[in-house]
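Structure ticket #2291
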Amino acid sequence: MVVRDPEDVSRYDEELGKVTIGGARPLERPIEIRAYDPRWPLHYEREEARIRSVLGDRVLRLEHVGSTAVPGLPAKPVIDIALEVEESAAEPAYVPALEAAGFLLRIWEPEWYEHRLLKRQDTEVNLHVFPANCPEVDRMLRFRDRLRGNAADRELYTDAKRKLAARKWKYMQQYADAKTEVIREIIARAEAAAG
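Resolution: structure written out below.
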């Protein structure tokens, strides 16, 4: 999603309404950051098996991303998964199979890496679908791996998330966009360390 000014609620009303199937949904409760749960990787493994079972070789890359993929990192209890398929814009090639497995297409963002977001209907899972060799998936993995291997950045990110989660937001996307600056800092350090 294109990053916006988290304080500009009217812009979120308009833009989220354009990309969210069924309309933008305001938060119903405060954002909850929980202590790391060692069951999160197991939850990902179950979802990975489910996705692979319905898509087979259409799965080009499948990764556990986001805070629940980082041992020891407090997080919202939502499993974020990045999936690469040949062409994410070719929805008939994968969406019906995922819908049959309990996922629901919620966000359609053709201007941002042809991103699609599907959510599980019965559990907290966000499935981010991108086309093959997507640089956004690479960015997600650099961020995840940096947090896995660097305690100082993990603490910095934890602090930022807790402060931002304590604020009142209309939409979850505002909270996500408000984290952009600290995420960029951490990724820049990861890239500098890599070479």
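Closing remark: The chain has a mean pLDDT of 94.
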